[in-house]
Amino acid sequence: MKFAYHIALFATFASTALGASQFFGLNYNPKRPDGSCPNVYQVQADLKVLRPYTNRLRIYSVHDCNQGEPVLRAMENTDWKVELGLWVNKNDAVFEADKKELLRLTQYFNFAKQVSAVVVGSEAVYRKEQTAEQLAAKIRNVKQALANVGLARIPVTTSETWPTYYQALINEVDFVNMHGFPFWEGVSIDKANDKMFQHIYDLQAAAKGKKVVVGETGWPSAGDHYGAAETGMHNAQRYLQQFVCRAARENIEYYYFNSFDQSWASTNNASNVEGHWGIVKSDYVTPKFAEPIYSCN
Q1: Cα 92 to Cα 96: distance, rounded to the nearest angstrom
Q2: How far is 185 from 231, CA to CA, in rounded Å?
Q3: I need a labelling partner for 145 at 20 to 30 A (CA). Which of 77, 111, 184, 277 fits?
Q4: Is the dihedral of CA 257, 260, 265, 271 positive or negative?
């Protein structure tokens, strides 16, 4: 009850201090609209654009584009917090490079203040690039590496889709970080949020008391439909409003997907919806939706 009170108090403060369209957190990739790597000044500009919405971000790799350093540097002496991702795929050298960079960054930045969690992999089991047991071993490895440099208190988790968050992962993580996209299940917008929250409830039951956080969810504003799931601005905003308001009512933490429309993402994926998940347009400046983005009555 005391925890729920503090959550509600924080939500009230955040809404008053920062405006109506607050998100618990947002997913963020600092690559530029053309896919090039960012510098600290560009990240600072992004943070200025995103600050009205949140002060929490998640990135997917500290080594790719060496993006961990400019993100942490841009957040210094601010109230921003970040979940730092380590990329995991079939090639374990990729994971090792990310882990090495993570440990290097611990020497130069105040992780206890700036880093809210470390996320080992994103959908690596779903993509069949790791088994749950292999990924669990990597989570243990990162926990030990952080403990060795005095950072054992930083939570370590992994991100997986709801059906591939196997018990071996639940047992190992400090909190469950699930991805859920009713759009990719071909679910109509009328049923989408009920479907999403049923996945949350199912994982909460499996987690047996461990916190379940939504690491990704959203709805594309453009591109091809998928089964009964129809893209478009109206549906994107409707899904956002229903999800954010229900998550607030139920005290569920989340990182909404995505900060920016990413024109470069469409070139890396066969689907033409991949560049259209953001709350800010692909110029990284212009809000996609009119304010207020949502209203929880």
Answers
A1: 6
A2: 13
A3: 77
A4: positive
What's the one-letter identity of residue 166? Answer: Y
- Contact indicator for 202, 167 with CB cutoff of 8 Å: no
Does the global pTM surpass 0.90?
Answer: yes
| Residues 6 or more apart whose Cβ sits within 8 Å of residue 150 | none
In sequence order, which residues have a C-beta less than 8 Å from that of residue 28 and are 6 or more positions away?
Answer: 46, 50, 57, 58, 59, 71, 258, 259, 260
Task: Decide: helix, strand or coil at residue 224.
Answer: coil
Strands across the sheet with 26-27, in order? 26-27, 56-58, 81-86, 115-122, 156-161, 176-179, 212-216
Q: Check residue 7 and report its DSSP letter.
A: H
Is pLDDT of 53 > 50?
yes
Place of tokens 């990135």: 59
Q: Which two three-digit tokens encode residue 109?
A: 């930045």
Determine the Cα angle at 97 with ends 96 and 101, to 5°.
115
Instruction: Say how far apart CA 296 and CA 55 lie, in whole Å.
Output: 20
Residues 138-155: pLDDT tens digits? 999 999 999 999 999 999
